[in-house]
Structure formats: structure tokens, C-alpha cells
Specification:
The chain is mainly α. The chain is built from five helices and no strands. The longest helix has 32 residues. It is elongated, with a radius of gyration of 21 Å.
Length: 171
């Protein structure tokens, strides 16, 4: 075993397969849509006649999901090669630290969205001690933001995966 490996066991062969990138993109899309399904399900249930309480999902409940979705867009707009870029490979100076700053802001948006959903859950649903059908509105918000965050990580990793099965045409 060579001395410069990070892990003791090698990666499975399917990780380097030709369809891994595509499967990662589809998995990220499924996680993203499942996250928003939970939140939209709770939102429609809160305004239906089956909701037995006076508590409804308002704009305050939507703000963490909006922050997480914007963070996902910001994070996935950064290429992995830009994080270690030097001024000779791209036009302009300081490309690497600008890309790292934008990536940090994207992760901060997503972390703020997840923290905001937990704060909404605690302050709006747990402190007033609402029963579970009403408590589901806050739980669904936390689940949605967690799935959006996981979706963003899966999409960023799968998009920036080295793909040996594609041709890079460079002049």
C-alpha cells in the first residue's frame, strides 16, 4: 500500500464509473424536490380545512427556505478549479480568494437558512406547546432546509467530479 493515500481502503469501482456524475445530479434533484415537497405539503395543510388550529404558515416560515435555495444556487455556481486558481490561468487577479469568498457566502446562506428554520420551529411551534399536527409545520421546515443543504452538497460534489469518460477539447 502506498504511503500517500488518504484512506486505507480503495474506492469501489462504481464510484469512477461513467454514470456516477449523472446519478449524483439526479439524486441531488430528488433530494431538492423532496425537501420542497415537505414544506409545500405543510403549507397547503396549514391553510386547509383539516387544520384544527389558528396557526398557519406565513412569510416568516418561507424565509429560511429561500435563503437555503439561494445558498444552493451560489454554491453550485462555483467551479472547483476556481478555488485553487492562480492569476495566470484566469484573467484578473485574486480569482481564488474571490471564489472562496463567494463559496463561503453560499454556505453561510445555507447555514443561516437551516438555523432560521430551527429558530422558527422553536419560537413559533415548540415554545407555545402546540400539538403535533401543528408542530409538523415547523418540523417540515427543518426537514426541507436539511434536504436542500444535503442536495447542494451532493450536486457540488457530483458536478466537480473528475470525469475520465468525457473529452476535453482545448485549443
Amino acid at each position: 500500500m502506498s504511503g500517500h493515500k488518504v484512506f486505507r481502503f480503495p474506492l469501489p469501482e462504481w464510484v469512477n464509473g461513467p454514470n456516477t456524475r449523472t446519478a449524483g445530479v439526479y439524486l441531488a434533484g430528488a433530494l431538492f424536490s423532496l425537501g420542497f415537497f415537505f414544506f409545500i405539503d405543510a403549507s397547503t395543510y396549514s391553510h386547509s380545512a383539516k387544520n384544527g388550529s389558528n396557526v398557519h404558515i406565513k412569510f416568516v416560515d418561507w424565509i429560511p427556505g429561500i435563503c437555503s435555495a439561494l445558498g444552493m444556487l451560489v454554491i453550485n455556481s462555483i467551479e472547483k478549479t476556481r478555488l485553487s486558481a492562480d492569476s495566470y490561468s484566469y484573467s484578473g487577479t485574486g480569482v481564488a480568494w474571490k471564489a472562496r469568498l463567494v463559496l463561503f457566502l453560499g454556505f453561510a446562506l445555507m447555514a443561516g437558512g437551516l438555523a432560521g428554520s430551527v429558530a422558527v420551529l422553536v419560537l413559533k411551534y415548540i415554545v407555545p406547546e402546540y400539538p403535533f399536527p401543528t408542530l409538523y409545520f415547523g418540523v417540515a421546515n427543518v426537514i426541507a432546509n436539511g434536504l436542500i443543504m444535503l442536495s447542494s452538497v451532493v450536486l457540488w460534489v457530483s458536478q466537480n467530479m473528475e470525469d475520465d469518460y468525457t473529452y476535453n477539447l482545448a485549443l
